[in-house]
Amino acid sequence: MTADRDLDRVVRSWLREDGREDAERVLVLALGELDTTPQRRAGWLARRLSSMNSNPVRLGAIAAAAIVVAILGFSLVRSGDVGEADRSPTPSPGTATPAPSAAPDGGVPAGMLDVQYLADGQLRFFPADDAACTSIPVDGACFHWEAWWGLVEGPAVFADGAVSLTAERCSSCDAEWELFSGTTTILEIVAGGESLPVEGCDEGPCIGLQDNTFRRVGLGLPFPPEQTDDEAQRYGWPSYDNVLTFTVPAGRWDASGPFIHAHVGPDATVEMRFAHICRLEAGESSSVPLSCEGETYAPQGADEVAVVVAGYRGWYGEHPSGELQEWILDFDGWWVSIQLRIYGDVESAVVDEAMELLESIEAAPRD
Amino acid sequence: MESDLVARAQGGDKDAFAALAAARADRYLAVSRRIVRDLALAEDATQQALLAIWRDLPQLRDPAHFDAWSYRLLVRACYAEANRARRSAPNLRLLPADEPAADALSAVADRDQLERGFRRISLDHRTVLVLQHYLDLSLADIADILGVPVGTVASRLHHAMRGLRAALDADARPVTREAAQ
Q: What domain range is A355 assigned to?
């Protein structure tokens, strides 16, 4: 404990001893771009919520879940899991709101908060260096959003479960929305991702689950009204409690990209991460997996045990708290860290599904 | 006054935004540099964050929360820049390791060791360490900025220090252990 405090002190002192930064140049550059950087008008969701004299958090979360389910629905359609008959407008359970139509002013169609939607059209991705702007056109308007952290090119859900979306007029809207009653299990989502485009691997083996190499899929779980997120109230953002995100970068895994990150409540989390450790050449070895330069993995503690997962050899260890389990597996010379974190009271079925995914892992040579 | 500036900037007042930005840019750059460990990347992150703040400012409902909100955008920008840089430089994640020897700190003789150790821990871990030890933020505030539960922040801090300790320990000792294949 004393050593911990000492390290805290050392780190604190070191972080603060660096010289003072001068951001003048950066500031000038940024301010110089304001004229060409239009502000986004306040989200339709916030305005609508504030005008509805209702529980903004709950409605925000429902809206967030609905949009994420829409992503799921789109994925299912793409994979063929939803037949033609299912693609006709059908009211969602518990809703009787008709399909949306374009608002008279060309803005967001009426009723979009009250039902769940399936986007039967082209999801349009606008990859950017720092985020992806994704847009679903609908009846003269677009839902669009940005994603970041591990979701460089993915749909609406952030790696941490947050959803950010605004609706704006869209110049080219050739898709239609249909009502959709979603499904809500992890494995269904996995199935739904089957036909998503596969990106080429630019390093390491392509790693797939259940015979698929995925990009990413989002899922909205049923929203218990008693679970709220006061962040939504503080920032005016849609709540994302109980929204499960399922993110799978295709082929390429890096240390920051969450593979699976699931919020199942404000105090409970299941999270899986994939991370390349390093590329090894035959015969290389060293003491710790800190660098890819001539080092290999070796057990870090007495509690780590040799395991075989889905046919891949490696090591397993867990944090004494039980919150973190980690497998280090050798995929043809690529050591991959697979971490499973569980916080709070998570249903065992959710953990079982995560473990089932783990056991389905496959690696293929890079293209 | 600050809230007034924020409100004006939300309405498109560039002068108000410039005042807000000027008061914070140095700190933003300092935080960015400590997270991404590279001045050029930090400058890019800061610039992108400032533009993102301007762009999204109308969506901030409560001007009183401008700082927390803006740090969230700053951290996003840091992640984006770091991810871009990482494409050619794999980052590494540590296993939970044995507690290093208690005297490992004695090996922390210079800043280079800390720098190397800091670079070896993940971006998530660097971020929480900077937010806590440099900005002196509470766990709750860090959770706000990162958009994760407080428990996640606590866990990241724990593992960050553990990883840093392991990295420092490894840095200080010779290579002795062979791979177990």
A: 230-364
Q: Which residues of A touch B6 (CB under 8 A)?
A: none
Indicate whether A300 and A333 sit together in one domain: yes
Q: In the CATH hierarchy, which fold is given to the domain comprising B102-172?
A: Arc Repressor Mutant, subunit A (1.10.10)
pTM equals 0.43
pLDDT in tens, B118-130: 877 778 888 999 9
We report the CATH number of the domain holding residue A319 as 3.40.1000
Is residue A103 classed as helix, strand or coil in its secondary structure? coil
Q: Which of A210, A225, A221 has its CA nearest to residue A185? A: A221
Which residues does chain B have within 8 Å of residue A289's beta carbon, measured at their own beta carbons?
92, 94-95
Domain chopping of chain B, boundaries: 2-86, 102-172
For residue A8, the model assigns a pLDDT of 81
Judged against a pLDDT cut of 90, whether residue A43 lies above it is answered with no
CATH code for residues B2-86: 1.10.1740.10
Q: Which of A188, A218, A248 is the last residue of a domain?
A: A218
pLDDT at A15: 85
A130-148 pLDDT tens trace: 333 344 444 344 444 333 2
Query: Which ipTM value was assigned to this complex?
Result: 0.80
- How close B108 gets to chain A, by Cα (Å)? 9
Report the residue count for chain B: 181
Q: Give, as one character, the DSSP assignment of residue A215.
A: -
In whole angstroms, give the CA distance from residue B121 to residue B35. 11
Question: Does A220 score more than 70 pLDDT?
Answer: no
- pLDDT at position A183: 31
DSSP codes of every residue in A295-349: ------STT-EEEEETTEEEEEEE-TTSSEEEEEEEETTEEEEEEEEEESS--HH
Question: From the candidates A18, A29, A39, which should be mutated to test the interface with B, based on the most B CB atoms within 10 A?
Answer: A39
Q: What is the pLDDT of residue B50?
A: 94
| Alpha carbons B43 and A25: distance in angstroms, whole number | 9
Assigned domain for A3 exists? no
- Pair A60, A208 in one domain: yes
Chain B residues 142-161 with a CB less than 8 Å from chain A: 144, 146-149, 151-152, 155, 159, 161
Find residues 151-190 of chain A whose CB sits inside 8 Å of chain B: 152, 158, 160-162, 166
User: CB of A337 within 8 Å of any CB in chain B?
Assistant: yes
Whether A300 contacts chain B with CB within 8 A:
yes
Q: For CA atoms A132, A261, A213, A324, give the dihedral sign.
A: positive
Q: Mutation target for B interface from A6, A8, A9, A11: give the one with most B CBs within 10 A.
A: A11
In a domain, A225, yes or no: no
